[in-house]
Structure formats: C-alpha cells, structure tokens
Amino acid sequence: MSRGAESPPARPHHARIASGVAPETTPARAMQGKQTMHFGVYSLGQEVVMLYRLSRAGLTSGKGATAFRLRTRGVTIFLDTWLDKPDVMSSYLAVDDVTEADYIFISHAHLDHLPGADRIAIKTGAIVIANCEAINCLRDAGVPEEQLFPVQGGERIPLFTSEIRIKTKEYESMRNPGFPGAPPMPAELSVHVWPSLHCLMPQDHPEVIDTATVYTGAASPYSCTLDITSGMKYGLLRIGDWLPAEKLTPGHRSFIRYVEDRKRNVFSHCDGGQLMFNFLVPTAAGDTKALLWSAHLGGYEAVLRAMQPKPDTAILGIAGRANLDGRPFVGSAAEFASRQVGWLGNPAQVIWCLHDETCIPPYKIDTDAATVAVEKSGKTKVLPLKHAEMVSLGL
C-alpha cells in the first residue's frame, strides 16, 4: 500500500453532540467551515466544546452524578458514566443507547460515577482512563486490557479519534515512539491528570445541603476520606439492613435494588483516589483553551494553585463538606468554592455538578450561596445547564 493510503483522515475542527442523543442539526454543524472551536455541554450529566449534560446530581456520599459528554475535534468523551440510575430517578440517556465513545474518564470508583463504563467501553471500544480501583473493577467486568489506562495524577495524555487509533493499529508507519501502539502526533487534544479529593459528609445528613452552611470542628482528630469509604461499605450499601422497614421510602427501596445488582452496576465502596482532569484543546488561532473537570468538593491547595494552564471553564462538584488537603474545611462550601476558583485563576465560566435531586437524603444541594460567592469578583460567571441540552462553551 502506498504511503499516501496510510495518511490519517482530515481532522474536524468543530465539536458537536454525539449521535443518538440530540438531533444532527446542532450548533456545531451549523458552524461547519468556520475556524471556531466549539465546546458543547450535554448533561446526563453534560457535554463540553460541545458539552452535553447527562445527569446532574444531588449526592455527597454516593447518591449524585457528575456525568457529561464532551464533543470536540471529532473526539467523543464521557466524563463519568452514571447514566442508568435507580428506577425512581430520571435518566436522560440509557447506557445501552450509547453508540459512540472514544474515551471514558472516571473521577472515582463510587456507585454514582463508574457504573455503565464497562458496557460502554465493551460496546464502543472506548479507552477508559481512571484510577486503579476503577480499572480493576472494569477489568473484572470484562473490559479488554488494551482499553484500560490506569492513572493516579501527574500524567499527560494525548487524545485521538477512534479512526486514528484504528489506523495506527493497521499501519506500523503511523506509530509514534512511546507507549505500545502510540498514534501519530500531534494529538487532536490532550489531558492533564491531577490528584484530587472526595468531599466529606455533614454529620447530620440533612435533607437539603445549603452551600451557605458553615462547618466547624470535626467528628474526630482523624476525620478524612476513610470515613467515606467506611460509610459507603458499612452504611450506605447496607441501608436495607439497618434502616427500619417502616422508614424505607420508595427512594430507599429503589436505591437498594440498584446497589444489589452488582453485575449490571459495576462500582466499588472505595473511591480509589479522586482524580480531576484538565482538557487542553488547540484552537485554529494557535492558542490553547482548557476545560477542568473536578467532580467533588475537595482538593489540594498546592495542586490547584500550581495547575497550568489555568482552565477557561471549570466543572466543579459543589456537594457536601469541602475537603481541603485531606482535612475537613472550616467554613462553608460557598467559601471553599470561592477560594478554589481563585486558586484556579478565576476561570471565565464555572459549571456546578453533583448538586441535583436524588432518591435518598441529602435530596438536593442549594447552590445559591456558592454562585454568589464565585461571581463576587466579577471575573467568573456560573453557567446554568439543563439536562439533555447541549451547550456551546465558546472555548
């Protein structure tokens, strides 16, 4: 075969929503021919550089969601895959209806983040990038080893369309020196992986968590994310054993049915180490735009301050009690969010996640105080999103 026949296909410069989720007459398609980077958010959760929100969430310890679908430069990316939920909750895209994915990024291995990744990966051939706990769960569920990329923070990874990855397997001349089967450079886009932290739970487990609530003190001198692991294993996942039958609501019963089906819903009681991902997208103008996805209210101050490039848009978890440097944050979620946004260089846009209604307490998160706090500087605006609606981020 001639060298010319091995050449990769032309790279699309516009992001658009994945097929099967929204009509093909998307804003991205209308922009064909223009040299504009188009991020869209689709929330099932959601989608960025076309971001589609697939599922907003109201979880602080295993009950919410942070799923988004991102489309840009011909690459389809899922951010978490909690699409199929307990049957009393709304779902906006079924796992079995997903027909296209190039990459799946998992923030951690809990029940409202990881389920569905195995079935989407097996069906589409998508590469899964996640911590080792999540990777081990997916390996046990039958995801091929070549699709599993374990990370722990500090990695920088080039991303390609599935078509390029398939051609690279066929034609050795296309391969780039590096890891086995590495596609050619430059990449369509790339991602920097950073260590992060899971939020902590308010001791009283209120029905509604208000981001204005100020927290002081700690349950013990050792309060940390190990409490989340233990609470998940011995509390949340055994709720049917310790909660009196007369107090079980339809939401509780739906949740119990969901977590008992561990074959269909693959997850772990251990988060495996929270991760956040900063996506770097080259533009036609020659610069780079960055989108950060951090699915929980926590992090290391030094990491957030040092992160480069600073994100233009940040998707941030806003539920629970903030976890700063491994310890309970003294103050409100709104105050932590304001500091976090400042450490990140005041991105122009912030999108909340992990804050919608769910089927067991806490039922939802009141984000008003957090929105006021991060917008106070005048440099950042909170972008409200609707489920199953694609949004262009203008990145």
UniProtKB/TrEMBL annotation:
Family annotation (InterPro entries): RibonucZ/Hydroxyglut_hydro, UPF0173_UPF0282_UlaG_hydrolase
Region (Disordered): 1-24
Domain of life: Eukaryota
SUPFAM superfamilies membership: Metallo-hydrolase/oxidoreductase (SSF56281)
Name of the protein in question: Metallo-beta-lactamase domain-containing protein
Lineage: Eukaryota, Fungi, Dikarya, Ascomycota, Pezizomycotina
